[in-house]
Every structure is written in C-alpha cells, then in structure tokens.
Amino acid sequence: MTSSQTSKKQELPATAWAVLGLLSFPGERTGYELKKWADSSLRFFYWSPAISQIYAELRRLEELGYAASTRSGPQEARAKRRYAITAAGRAALAGWASDTAEAGPPVLKHGLLLRIWLGHLADPVLLRAMVGEHLERTRGELAAVREAMAQAQEVPQWAFPALALRWSERQHLAELELGEALLADLAELAAAGTPAPAGVRQGGGDAPTPG
Fold first, then answer.
1. Is residue 69 located within the same domain as residue 116?
2. Same domain assignment for residues 18 and 80
3. Which of 43, 64, 109, 134 is disulfide-compatible with 48, CB 3.0–4.6 A?
4. The Transcription regulator PadR N-terminal domain covers which part of the protein (predicted)?
C-alpha cells in the first residue's frame, strides 16, 4: 500500500467501513443490493446511507484495493456491476472493527424531543398527537426489526448481525416505553396548568439548567 493509500485509509469515514462491512459477508452484491441490505439491517442501529453514498464509497474502496468489482456478461438483459471484498479489505476491516478507540459514544438526535423542549411555544394537543404518531411509527419499525431478525436467524453467517438486531429490538421496546411515559408526563403537565419552568422569569432570565 502506498503512503497515499495509507493516508486515505486513516481518513475513511464510518460509512465506508459500514459499506465494506456489508461486503464482508459471503457473496458478491450490486450497489442496489447493498442499499437494500442496509435498509433492512444497518438503519435499525446505525443508519442507512443513500444509494449515491454507497456508490461513492464503493469507488473509494476500489481505489484503496479493499473491494473489487466485476461486470455482468451479455446473458443479463441489463449489465450490473457486482462488488466483493478483497483480502486487503478484510484485513483492514478486521483491524478497524477491533479498534475500540474508534467506536465513540452513541449519538442521539431525537427530533420529537427537540419539539417537546420547545413545548412552551406549541399547542399541547399537537404535542400529544406528535408523541402518538411517534409511537405508531416506532411500532412499525419494531415489526420491521423483528422481520429482519427472523431472516438473519435463518443464516448461520449472520449470527452477529442477528445480535445487533436483537439489541435494536430492545431499543425500540424501550422507545415505546419512553413514549408512553412522555404522554403521561404531558397529561400531568396539562392537568397542573402547564406552569412556567422554575427559574424562568417573564422577559428572559437564566437557563433552567446549570451552566
């Protein structure tokens, strides 16, 4: 590997490693197939990159020698390019997966909670409706997670993805519990007349939390 390739390896984003990870399982796959797999696995505990991002990362991985592609022959009505991980790519991925220093803390960006935080500017009825919609959406996601779990459990090579999906099932169950508790909190606040947060004075004041 050249010094330029080594530098690029060190700068690889997590998305590149995720795409390479999708290639680390047996078989060759098209970019479209990788996207479908990401949608039915990665998105439940990390995120699913756009198809354009997947192809961009595949090009980068090929440049580094971590992935190789072949084009389908004339027997297929529509030519397709299939990708596979290389020995160098598997070694690099194994090194990255074993480096716990790179894992970092989980990042939570909860759009609903941002709106709850601004609840003093919102209609309480609309807030409760948003929480209800969030619960319905989470139930749908939970069903999708369980469907993916059932598929993964049928393939011995997917034992570890199945563990990640099992964690995601528990996370969605916890999200449902938190959502129900949030509805109860909103109802309690409404019954109490929605008092102004402690420490906040009309016309401004310090933040309601230390800092």
1. no
2. yes
3. 43
4. 19-94
Sign of the CA dihedral with 132 first, then 138, 142, and 147 last = positive
Residue 142 lies in domain: 111-192
Contact 21, 49 (CB under 8 A): no
Place 56 in a pLDDT band, splitting at 50, 70 and 90.
very high
3-state class (DSSP) for residue 71: strand
Tokens found for residue 164 = 């990640």
Phi first, then psi, for residue 67 (nearest 5°) are -140, 155
Please return the burial class of 42, using the count of CB atoms within 10 Å of its CB with bins 0-12, 13-18 and 19+: buried
* 69 found inside a domain: yes
Last residue of a domain, one of 34, 69, 95: 95
In the structure encoding, which two tokens stand for residue 3, read together?
């010094």
In a domain, 197, yes or no: no
